Amino acid sequence: xxxxxxxxxxxxxxxxxxxxxxxxxxxxxxxxxxxxxxxxxxxxxxxxxxxxxxxxxxxxxxxxxxxxxxxxxxxxxxxxxxxxxxxxxxxxxxxxxxxxxxxxxxxxxxxxxxxxxxxxxxxxxxxxxxxxxxxxxxxxxxxxxxxxxxxxxxxxxxxxxxxxxxxxxxxxxxxxxxxxxxxxxxxxxxxxxxxxxxxxxxxxxxxxxxxxxxxxxxxxxxxxxxxxxxxxxxxxxxxxxxxxxxxxxxxxxxxxxxxxxxxxxxxxxxxxxxxxxxxxxxxxxxxxxxxxxxxxxxxxxxxxxxxxxxxxxxxxxxxxxxxxxxxxxxxxxxxxxxxxxxxxxxxxxxxxxxxxxxxxxxxxxxxxxxxxxxxxxxxxxxxxxxxxxxxxxxxxxxxxxxxxxxxxxxxxxxxxxxxxxxxxxxxxxxxxxxxxxxxxxxxxxxxxxxxxxxxx
Length: 456
Hints:
This protein is an alpha/beta fold and 456 residues long. It folds into 3 domains: 7-150, 3-Layer(aba) Sandwich (Rossmann fold), CATH 3.40.50.2300; 155-250, no CATH class; 262-447, no CATH class. Helices cover 44% and strands 18% of the residues. The protein has helices spanning 14-26, 73-87, 102-115, 137-149, 152-179, 187-210, 212-217, 219-237, 244-250, 262-273, 294-297, 303-310, 314-321, 330-339, 350-354, 433-447; strands at residues 7-11, 31-35, 59-63, 94-98, 124-128, 274-276, 288-292, 341-346, 361-370, 391-399, 402-416, 424-431. Strands 6-12-7-8-9-11-10 form a 7-stranded antiparallel beta sheet. Strands 2-1-3-4-5 form a 5-stranded parallel beta sheet, covered by helices on one side. α5 packs across α8 (219-237) and α6 crosses α8 (219-237). The longest helix has 28 residues, at 152-179. The termini are far apart.
């Protein structure tokens, strides 16, 4: 996959587009020009003729008037929105218009804000004079440089994104440098020996990272995992070159004790610890949270078998492990039970999964409880958030836009072959490695806790 330049230019006049692109390139800013075509009925957005899958624009500079000459903001906004719908992804971006009329641009942005709330809005927007971008290289260099720093938040995030990209390039460069032959006798010999050395080095990296057998089955995982430590080192090596003011300006309150809202904490917990999964995701991957199979558990014919295997019926199990049945009324307790989703967390040993030694995947019983029923997750007069020591409570997380409390019980473990188990339903999310390590550690502590005979 090739990632194209992050600056995108859009104009309906080819000559203007070429001139501005040339000026930007001369100033040292690679950009992706798109000629807006307004006379093709099937070209709804005006840029449908361009393959944009490889574009993730961070700066969009577009002509304000993409169709016939207009001065009415109401008529200008439609083509602009169609272009943005086609181009914009979920990330941050800056939007600039070529125009001499700032008031018209302001009205266009008001209309976008009022009418198109489903659009990913720009982090910042502004107005540029097209004449400044023609043949004035130094002025252009200064102007474009200012575009990136005008918004401190964008400047910090975009700079970090580029540093990581540079670190990846440095990783490849350092490997390539090691692979070059000590003596070069012509281009053919150079190409042959360098390629051979790279092939051997990558193979050794992959084999050593996850083992020969696993590397053969998943070379993409083996090699990329093997390159990660070097990539991280190149990222860290650049810390001293970062302008401290970049992050200070972006992260207000950094270095001071802050009291973040609960919803912000839940979002950050999700950012660090949760990856949402599709229904077709594998059920055997470590950290996967699999919903109970509703068809199986909802069939009353299976109740006796379920109770025989778990030792409890589902209602009793929820009360004993996850919810305080002394809270609320009979009706609210019923609502809490109905809203609670039961599932299983895959927690096989990391080394076994890496080396493919897992015969039966290990699953721990778990529950997803919506935040509105939080009071049912507190025990002993709100002094504890778990029923007993064999419960792990995951920090609140956001899943599918809703905040949940996740609990894992170490008392209920099952071994299963995921693809044939009748108990396992659809994958919902995956817990990432950092929190999995903590859960695994707590589970092993619970399993090996000593017991004593004592007389008080």
